[in-house]
Structure prediction request, 121 residues.
Amino acid sequence: MPGRNLVARELAEIFKIIAHPDRIRMIEELRTGEKDVNTLAETLDLPGARVSQHLSLMRAHRLVEERRDGRHHFYHLIQPEIADWIVDGLDFVEGRLSGVSKSSITQARRLWTAPAKAANS
Prediction:
């Protein structure tokens, strides 16, 4: 059973890292490809410093990688499949429907599963 315990701990660690609304939204933005901090901040309507802090944490836990081009810092998901986990989680949220409307879930699903061109429009 030690192997199963180790796997459970690793999954719990991943869940802890993504367990923030801003980071969930960042992961879904990055599912369509690499983006810089300013683009993420503008798209998500968040302060750049806050975006940078979240990305730093996700980079430290190997969820994203950084590429620098001059003064610009670009980020991409190391394993883009994590974005699929989040979309799959919408089914669970929909089943609970505690404080989230069905239309909000439908809107998130549509945005998060749109092809890259449509998601950036």
Summary: Helices lie at 2-18, 21-30, 37-44, 48-60, 81-96, 102-113, 116-119.
